[in-house]
Structures are given as C-alpha cells and as structure tokens.
Amino acid sequence: MREKIYSFELFPPKSEKGFLDLKKTVGKLSEKNIHFFSCTYGAGGSTQENTFATVDWLRMQQINTAPHLTCIGNSIEGTLNILERYKNQGVKRIVALRGDRPSGSGISNGDLNHANELVSLIKQEFGDYFHIEVAAYPEMHPQASNFSEDIKNFKRKIDAGANSAITQYFYSKDAYSRFVDQCSNSNIDIPIVPGVMPITNFSSLRRFSANCGAEIPRWICKRLEGFGDDLKSIREFGEEVVTDLCQHLLSDGAPGLHFYTMNRSEPTLALWNNLNLK
Ligand code: FAD
Predict the structure, then answer these.
(1) Counting CB atoms within 10 angstroms of each CB, which of 23, 51, 54, 246 has the fewest?
(2) Ligand 1 site: residues with CB under 6 angstroms?
(3) Which tens digits make up the pLDDT trace of 61-107?
(4) Residues in the chain, pLDDT under 70
(5) Ligand 1: distance of its center to the CA of 73 in Å?
(6) pLDDT of residue 108
(7) Which residues, other chains included, contact 151 with Cβ-Cβ below 8 Å and sequence gap of 6+?
(8) Of 54, 101, 114, best ligand 1 pocket probe by most atoms within 8 Å of the beta carbon
(9) Is 9 a catalytic residue?
C-alpha cells in the first residue's frame, strides 16, 4: 500500500503581524508528520514578493516547501527565473497552476494560457528535477464547458508530466469518488489528493465557495445558517462534518489529504487529531 501524502497549505501574509502569526502556525503544524507545506501565489502580482519571502523563510527552517506558481500574466522568461530561484533554494516540488486574473487588474494573459503549458515548460527546462503538482476539480472547474472536457483538460496536465494532483475542496465524498473513477477510466493514474477546507466561518466560506465553484451541500448550509453568530456551534458542527468526510475519503482509498489551513493551526489540528494522524 502506498504511503499517504499529507500537506498543509499557507498563503503569504501581507503584514508584519500576519508574518509573525504565520511563524507560530508553522511552528505548531510542523510538529506533524507531513510531506510538505505549500504556499499560494497571487496571479495578480501584488503579493508575489510575499510568496517569495514566505518560501525563503520556510526554506531557512529546512521545511519541505512546495511553492504554487501561476502562469497567467507572466512571461516565459519571468517564470523560468522564478523556477531557477526555487531550484537554487533546494525546492523540489512545485504546484503548477494557470491562476485567475484578478478582476479589473488589466494584466494580459502572458506567454502561457493553461497549466498544461506550464507543466510542459517545467519538464522541458528542468527535466525530472521538480515533482509537479497540478489542480483538480471533482465538482468541475467553474469555467469548463462540461465535465468530460474538464477531464480531458486535466489529462493534458498529466500527459505533460504532472506527478500528482491536489483537488479544490468539496464536501461531497461522492463528487470525489466519481471524479477519481472517471480519471481512472481516462487512464489517469497519478495520486489525486483531496483538498480539505475546515469550516470555521460560514459567511466567508460561502463567499469563497461561490468564487471557486465549490459546492456547500444544502443540508450543511441550512445547519450553518441556523447557528447565526454562534461561532462555537459553527466550529463544532464544521469539525464533525469535515472529520467524517476525511475519514470516509481515507478509508475509501484517497492517497492522502491536503489541508487548506488558512494560516491557522487550530482548525487543521482539530481534524488531524480526530483522524488519529501522527
Ligand atoms: P487549467 O488547468 O489551465 O484549467 C483552467 C480551465 O481551462 C479549466 O476550465 C479547464 O478545463 C480549461 N483548460 C485547461 N487546459 C486547457 C487547454 N489546453 N485548452 C483549453 N482549455 C483548457 N490560484 C492562484 O492564483 N494562486 C494559487 O496559489 C492557487 N492555488 C491553487 C491550489 C489548488 C490546489 C487549486 C485547486 C486551485 C488553486 N488556485 C490558485 C486556483 C486556480 O488558479 C484556478 O482555479 C484557475 O482558474 C485554474 O487553474 P488551473 O491550474 O486549474 O488551470
């Protein structure tokens, strides 16, 4: 049986205070036996330096780090410079993405239009040096014309050389298992690790989910709505629902879990402990 892959996702803080908080969060999370921390990258440009600063700090702590890298709005030369920088820091894993243009940003597409082109570029220039992660969407990418087109486009990334995938978060285990079955029917056999979003705040989760096309099932919405401003009940219910989801995913054979920590240790650690992970 393959070893399960566990990872924690961070976003780059924008302030000194945020950075201090992040260091504390990483201090607590890095006690756990995980494969890597990943750090997001803003396709818009304004937060990119913060990603580099976060990756620099993580690498200084000798932490296995997988920076996210988006291609939209970037030149090939700029992209290669970033990859070279990461290679020099001993980074071995990259989460290769297209990214989204922030609305009203006015930035142009850049040299590469889709993540499969970024994966090809990385393979072409760096061979097998980087382990390449790509994004997967069990509930379909919001811009895809239909599910089977989306799977075909997902396969382009694998054919280009992606080694494994991390999914958008979801709360329906059936969405994931059907997606994985469909991938296997399409001869996709890389690990597809479920992305796990802890539930701690309903209004921000609802806003975020509407933007990225992740569905919160009606029964979960109704229960969360019913708690109003009672954050304790939201957290307790959320923890129960997400623990249950993770238990099912792992026992059904998911190759690991990728936690969207939102730079906070407690919600992820609560799930981790409930799952009896080390
Ligand atoms: P792609 O794989 O290029 O797919 C995008 C859309 O185009 C899909 O609808 C697909 O079906 C279609 N498509 C793909 N290839 C082709 C092709 N060759 N021809 C025609 N159509 C095609 N965003 C950030 O800005 N920064 C981050 O750090 C970040 N991290 C993420 C991490 C994870 C695990 C996930 C799941 C998402 C992340 N995102 C991030 C969001 C992501 O950038 C968006 O979802 C974006 O809209 C799509 O990126 P992608 O890499 O999946 O793109």
Answers:
(1) 23
(2) 40-43, 68, 70, 95, 97-100, 114-116, 135, 141, 143-144, 149-150, 153, 156-157, 166, 168, 195
(3) 999 999 999 999 899 999 999 999 999 999 999 999 999 877 666 66
(4) 44-45, 103-108
(5) 13
(6) 66
(7) 182, 183, 186, 188
(8) 114
(9) yes
